[in-house]
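Intended use. Records like the one below are meant for learning the mapping from a protein sequence to its folded structure. Do not use them to infer anything beyond what is encoded.
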Amino acid sequence: DHFGFDGWLVNLEAAAAGMGAVHELLELLTVCLKQRALVLVYDSLDRTGRVRYQNSLAPDNKAAFDACDGLFTNYWWGAKQLAQSVALAGARRCDVYVGVDCFARNTPYAAGPACAPACAAARAAGLSLALFAPGWSIECGGAQCASEDADAAAAADRRFWEALGLKRLYRD
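Structure written out for the chain above:
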């Protein structure tokens, strides 16, 4: 309703005393916002409430996934984790948002446009894509002086999105 806001990402990266309250929160937000916004949970807590990234939809985070509209996975995944996500999600595989860090911190893929194969792998698996830190295109993508040359910044940003195969999402 406000400013084109599409939804909520619930990102808990500190241990929780128990997951019951977390699941209740996710369910409540999802029910209350159903017609207006998506509620996604980040892949950070296991079923006991410990911080333990699964890098996929996994048995340890499936209950959280089931309590809301989708899961945003951590970034350290490979083909095995994509296949596991597809298998566990079933008909909801589009509700698994595969995390791709555009800065490629601790990932098996490289930064910037070089993360294109990771984006393609997520799409090929039939999963959705969640880009983290797409500001890379301005911060590191050849347009570091965006305030001095807006045209160069826009061109660098466009090249970044095109390299990821997401040109159709780019709006001039």
